[in-house]
Design a protein that fits this description.
single chain, 53% helix, mainly alpha
Length: 421
């Protein structure tokens, strides 16, 4: 299924690509600041970053990029083909070859509440795009027009949809289109529409030879790019490219043990290959995760992975798990370690531990310790969790006072061991 489109301003679409011939509404351009001061493109945050970087040159004064930086299949060197805006760009309304097309302005209704201040260039391109879409014109010039429309707003899913319609109708070279979309993704790596377009081109080509290398390059810029990981998972499943993926994940986790995306990919790969039912596989993964936890006990990702791979197991019955967890204790103890111990206590209670009262006491003490010391931002959650445990597993006669020393965590060991025996 296609990735969802990000939220848009009123009048810019609903997230579903309309069929060819239906009038789309383009996504908005950034509104300018009140006159007379010019507003640099990119919004306030980007302008602040621009100023703090020490570059006082306003974006409007920057040297324009030469035409032809991007050239897609069907684009020509003249008359408004592909590439970035340049000073020589001619409005479509002034081009003789477009004289037969009547532009279709955007319809914001009779009383628009907050009308978007589009630039003249933006209005010109999208007025003509709406016209060719309405006519369902599948031509070289229509393809070139989509290039200009994408240059102005690469998140407009309607433009991308119509571009694919034209590409197929004209039987264009899809390898050229793959090169085109690669350049756009390198500029805008966190754009739903560009990744979905790439997926469709790769699907049509039935060729994934460039994909894993390309995605790895994008992940070098940001190892937690959700869009890149989503595409990588699709490619791997679609073309059965499981070999060496676990080694790739190992490499990423060696570089950054806190890379939660890599931990997620590890779970994805094993779940879709060997699975965790094999005792040898599960044992290997538990050992690997505990080794990584020793490096960074406060890393939530590894603790979540450990709990995830053991979700179909009984924590209280997994061999030597308790002893290994208790060996990881440090001062101050990781809140994730303590939370994991609480989960183990709960599992002991669910499995009718003989030392039920003592086990419940320990779990309640740990909940209070997290609420008062290690995880105060979730204080109310841990107290709610303690109330739930107390209500489900019986009210104890004498509740223990909140733990004042982390040394008392070591006392958990004896109770756990008696239950496990």
């Amino acid at each position: 299924a296609p990735a969802p489109a990000p939220a848009r301003a009123p009048g810019t679409g609903t997230g579903t690509e309309p069929p060819a011939g239906q009038d789309p509404a383009p996504a908005p351009a950034p509104a300018p600041a009140p006159a007379p001061a010019p507003v640099p493109a990119g919004g306030l945050a980007q302008r602040l970053l621009h100023n703090t970087a020490g570059d006082e040159t306003p974006p409007e004064a920057e040297e324009p990029k030469p035409e032809g930086v991007r050239r897609a299949s069907g684009d020509s060197d003249g008359g408004g083909g592909g590439g970035r805006r340049s000073e020589s760009f001619a409005f479509y309304r002034d081009r003789k070859e477009w004289a037969d097309i009547k532009p279709v302005p955007q319809d914001d209704g009779p009383h628009p509440v907050v009308q978007i201040a589009y630039s003249e260039n933006f209005k010109d391109v999208y007025d003509y795009f709406r016209a060719v879409l309405k006519l369902d014109e599948r031509s070289e010039r229509a393809l070139s027009l989509t290039t200009d429309a994408i240059e102005l707003n690469a998140a407009n899913y309607t433009v991308w949809h119509f571009r694919r319609v034209v590409l197929q109708s004209l039987k264009k070279d899809l390898n050229e289109e793959l090169a085109y979309i690669s350049e756009i993704i390198e500029d805008q790596p966190k754009n739903y529409q560009v990744w979905y377009h790439r997926q469709k081109i790769v699907e049509w080509l039935k060729d994934s030879s460039q994909e894993l290398g390309f995605i790895s390059g994008i992940l070098e810029q940001d190892a937690k790019n959700y869009h890149a990981w989503q595409h990588r998972q699709w490619v791997i499943k679609e073309f059965n490219l499981w070999d060496n993926e676990l080694e790739y994940v190992d490499q990423l986790l060696e570089e950054d043990v806190r890379n939660n995306s890599a931990w997620n990919q590890r779970f994805f790969v094993i779940s879709n290959t060997t699975g965790f039912d094999d005792v040898a596989v599960l044992g290997r993964e538990v050992e690997y995760t505990l080794k990584m936890i020793k490096r960074a006990p406060h890393n939530e990702s590894a603790w979540n992975y450990l709990k995830g791979i053991l979700q179909d197991q009984s924590l209280s019955k997994y061999p030597n798990l308790l002893q290994q967890i208790l060996q990881l204790m440090e001062k101050p103890s990781s809140p994730y370690l303590i939370a994991f111990l609480i989960d183990m206590y709960e599992d002991f209670l669910e499995n009718n531990c003989e030392e039920k009262e003592g086990t419940l006491n320990k779990a309640l003490e740990l909940c209070e310790q997290l609420a008062m010391k290690q995880d105060t931002i979730r204080q109310e959650y841990w107290r709610y969790f303690a109330r739930r445990l107390r209500a489900k597993h019986g009210v104890i006669q004498q509740e223990s006072a909140p733990m004042g020393s982390e040394d008392s965590l070591q006392e958990c060991s004896e109770g756990f061991q008696r239950c496990s025996e």
